[in-house]
């Protein structure tokens, strides 16, 4: 699925495909995916072909499959979980006289598709001449409702545009289960489990409505998909409905008079459950269909716009001086919102619901990349996401026990909550995910002061993760509290001692758990937290080992990292990236080579633990050793580059993060979008060039723009208020749109913001020595828009999606 570059005209509020480009088909299916976090539909055509991955997903709906090992080991997960391509309701096939509409046959007179970021719909317009010489224009508008979680709809119109007289057309509107999809898994057992994962339980069709109910064979999850239709036809027509095991079809045959048109609205409803019966699920989708049909297309479209109007009003980032980045940042924010808004009690996968990549799994990407954006733009979605984590707490407790630890050990990758990573060093050993979850809890609580959440979910998450750290590390007379044998964010340095990122995040986790015990004595009582236990947490936090190399004047990413042999970058040809596919782990793990921001990530998220001088020195050191073999790296490097005065470099990385999918920089956007990287578009704007930090319950800013950007404005929601920050090269203006005055810091100075403009000068940036990247890993300088950020292949380029 390695594909060419996708290109889109630059527009502020939309993304348009002009003409049909076969090489970019899969990428466009991903970037035109519509989802609300519950239902996901890739942007494949209504007529079903040409297609790369058709893709319809329901969050949390997966099939189990065996996880193969050449050699088994204690605690290795035995079952994998793979998101299933569910019943496809996007299909509307059109027969023009006797030729099916197919963009590969006949003649495309013109074709565009537009993702409208304010209306939240995908519009398509295709004028097509059939091989038989008749010309029609097909327009469709598709939405996955952000207001009604179980509903999607398609408005489909056929217009006769030639003057050759009346035309007979037929429309077949389908629900299709067990579609053929390409599988990435070479293991025949896994492929077999996923080949036709759905077993039919019920198929009913009546009038213009049909429902199919299926169950997965192994995970025993049940799903219902339903469709109903409204039609407007100018002349005579016949209709038919049929429903069999894997296909339900509504057929409409009509005569369109010269100059006439036909309109069909297809309503879709989806539901799934691990417990409810077929009959109950059928009733559920039929009821949802009935209310959607009653509301009608216009109302659904209006509700969609209302949700987005409110979102952009509260969250928009305006960028002057780079229209391409403006577009990319908004597209990224749109997809982040789509991924999380209605996920409710389900996880947010690394690809959202935009493609099958990473098997549909959720990683730390959610808590560390996606939730910080949503905390300040759509906080209720964060509450839901963390409630989902909380709902998996018993599984995490069980996993901790299996590993001989206390508290909770959350999985590195999962759909339902069980660990499904089959590779220890870049899987369960990445224990930092537990502190990442705790960090997201702290951030959300601080930004919303949601006391109910704290009492019902947050405090327990903090306490159980703190218990894990206390039992994972140990006190050592010489080095304080050590956490040994873990993997930090950098998967090229695995199973190490005292990873600084992990230790500092654990330190925050331990301290915050102690605070939670004070705030929520009832929760602490229920969990049997004794005062001595809290003392241990606080002692561990204050004695936390943070290795430092005094000779080089930098922190060690983990113990002895700076003593390892240097990687021979000059002798590494470009085609040998990503390194993990070309060198044995033995070679990679014991050298100073970094896959993705790790110590640099600590400089951002635990910036309160470093001085500016330390940040400058550390950034330079790790910059020279980081390959950016993961799409999660660029945005974090950008944030720290901006803080340490490397503004042009931060700008270069901003483009790399934000354009990851629009320019298919990792050559695999066809598998689904890189949601964490897209979230990075916002993060670089707000945390990078806005310098926003939220350490220790304080909201602080340190805005500074790169040369090309003349003005930037962003909004954040914070403790029930809307704060707008406008930045130019000379000053920053802060204003509250509503609510009580708010104390913030601007470049270290404490100020109070209210509903009036508070204009503050921006001090000069630090002037550090230039930094360099490894030979061959330099970002392309962003001197003008339209220039593709160049990069070598990355870890994600291959099927080895680790
Ligand atoms: C990265 C991980 C990330 C995962 C999913 C890997 O390549 O190294 O940090 O969680 O991709 O995005």
Automatic annotation (TrEMBL):
<dbReference type="GO" id="GO:0004553">
    <property type="term" value="F:hydrolase activity, hydrolyzing O-glycosyl compounds"/>
</dbReference>
<feature type="active site" description="Proton donor">
    <location>
        <position position="491"/>
    </location>
</feature>
<comment type="similarity">
    <text>Belongs to the glycosyl hydrolase 65 family.</text>
</comment>
<feature type="domain" description="Glycoside hydrolase family 65 N-terminal">
    <location>
        <begin position="17"/>
        <end position="273"/>
    </location>
</feature>
<feature type="domain" description="Glycoside hydrolase family 65 central catalytic">
    <location>
        <begin position="330"/>
        <end position="683"/>
    </location>
</feature>
<feature type="domain" description="Glycoside hydrolase family 65 C-terminal">
    <location>
        <begin position="692"/>
        <end position="753"/>
    </location>
</feature>
<feature type="region of interest" description="Disordered">
    <location>
        <begin position="762"/>
        <end position="802"/>
    </location>
</feature>
<dbReference type="GO" id="GO:0016757">
    <property type="term" value="F:glycosyltransferase activity"/>
</dbReference>
<feature type="binding site">
    <location>
        <begin position="595"/>
        <end position="596"/>
    </location>
    <ligand>
        <name>substrate</name>
    </ligand>
</feature>
<dbReference type="InterPro" id="IPR012341">
    <property type="entry name" value="6hp_glycosidase-like_sf"/>
</dbReference>
<dbReference type="InterPro" id="IPR005195">
    <property type="entry name" value="Glyco_hydro_65_M"/>
</dbReference>
<keyword id="KW-0378">Hydrolase</keyword>
<dbReference type="InterPro" id="IPR037018">
    <property type="entry name" value="GH65_N"/>
</dbReference>
<dbReference type="InterPro" id="IPR008928">
    <property type="entry name" value="6-hairpin_glycosidase_sf"/>
</dbReference>
<protein>
    <submittedName>
        <fullName>Alpha,alpha-trehalose phosphorylase</fullName>
    </submittedName>
</protein>
<dbReference type="Pfam" id="PF03636">
    <property type="entry name" value="Glyco_hydro_65N"/>
</dbReference>
<dbReference type="GO" id="GO:0030246">
    <property type="term" value="F:carbohydrate binding"/>
</dbReference>
<keyword id="KW-0326">Glycosidase</keyword>
<dbReference type="Pfam" id="PF03633">
    <property type="entry name" value="Glyco_hydro_65C"/>
</dbReference>
<dbReference type="InterPro" id="IPR011013">
    <property type="entry name" value="Gal_mutarotase_sf_dom"/>
</dbReference>
<dbReference type="InterPro" id="IPR017045">
    <property type="entry name" value="Malt_Pase/Glycosyl_Hdrlase"/>
</dbReference>
<feature type="binding site">
    <location>
        <begin position="364"/>
        <end position="365"/>
    </location>
    <ligand>
        <name>substrate</name>
    </ligand>
</feature>
<dbReference type="GO" id="GO:0005975">
    <property type="term" value="P:carbohydrate metabolic process"/>
</dbReference>
<dbReference type="InterPro" id="IPR005194">
    <property type="entry name" value="Glyco_hydro_65_C"/>
</dbReference>
<dbReference type="Pfam" id="PF03632">
    <property type="entry name" value="Glyco_hydro_65m"/>
</dbReference>
<dbReference type="InterPro" id="IPR005196">
    <property type="entry name" value="Glyco_hydro_65_N"/>
</dbReference>
